[in-house]
TrEMBL record:
It comes from Polaribacter glomeratus. Keywords: Cobalt, Lyase, Metal-binding, NAD, Nucleotide-binding, Zinc. It is an enzyme of class 4 (lyase). Catalyzes the conversion of 3-deoxy-D-arabino-heptulosonate 7-phosphate (DAHP) to dehydroquinate (DHQ). GO terms for biological process: aromatic amino acid family biosynthetic process; chorismate biosynthetic process. GO terms for molecular function: 3-dehydroquinate synthase activity; metal ion binding; nucleotide binding. SUPFAM superfamilies: Dehydroquinate synthase-like (SSF56796). This is 3-dehydroquinate synthase. Residues 176-316 form the 3-dehydroquinate synthase C-terminal domain. Residues 62-174 form the 3-dehydroquinate synthase N-terminal domain. GO terms for cellular component: cytoplasm. It holds the Pfam family DHQ_synthase.
Amino acid sequence: MKTIEAVTYPVHFHSQSYQDLSNLIAKNNYSTIFILVDENTFEHCYPKFIPNLATDKRIEVIEIESGEINKNIETCIGVWNAITELGGDRKSVLITLGGGVITDLGGFVASCFKRGIDFINIPTTLLSMVDASVGGKTGVDLGVLKNQIGLFANPEMVLVDTSYLETVNEREIKSGTAEIIKYGITYDVKLFNEIKNNKNLKINDLIFRAVEIKNEVVLKDPKEKDLRKILNFGHTLGHAIESFYLESENKDNLTHGEAIAIGMVCECFMSSKLLNFPKEKVAEVKETIVSIYTKTILLKEDFTAIMDLLKHDKKNVNGQVNFVLLNDYEDFKLDCKVPEELIIESMEYYNS
């Protein structure tokens, strides 16, 4: 599988990529290699990764607790302190070995430490392979508000080794599949059809095409001024739903993909009301989503809290919530204003 050239860095695929990684480390003559993991990737992925790292440089492992709830500034401070205590300097490099939390937080940590050290992303979940590790967005949550603190910063390299997917459960695979569905609905409907029909599903090909699409979009619009906004489809309402479940003490958390899947159904429904997105395609998306994910009923008494969180979405301008909506598959409209009553109606449609 060929290398994808991103804005300033390559995205390598599979086992031969480890030689590229070793070459990069030797070329840049890093002083220390820091590897950021959580307890899961340290147990299941680190033993698989470390034999492939050919270097005589000093290696230090920094472990954080897993989960979106730990994607915050407090965790960053802990990592910054660890790097400092272990003698990190401006010639250090941070390798992120993990899912979306690790790559988002690790990139942010590296970009801020001593005004920026190099980092390398090695995603180990489907979600991080097709989304979080590529595109140059880094950041952490502010309380339950998703990705409120962060910056654009590119890694030196992304290494996608799909054998790490053997270490994650089916729920995490489904979480990442939501992002691939998003690319299919907004950009290349062949991807959506492959998942919908589930015939001879080749996950490696889906991953490559998803990364290719994200890279094509980011190359055209690195700072999300225009086209890159399509990558937010399903995320505007989806993030609010994810945040609500994250802060609710009496509810189980949703994965990122589960929340985004709900958001996509709702935003397809909004599209049908505002832009004449075909109703049969709304039903098609809903049927596909419900067939993949355990359905979570959004209680009416929770709508107000979800709407309140929606008002804090980082993409809002002048207090106005902006949605990406659809005229049709592969035909989108940016910065759509949606009446509050229609947002609520869309959640009722999802429940029905």
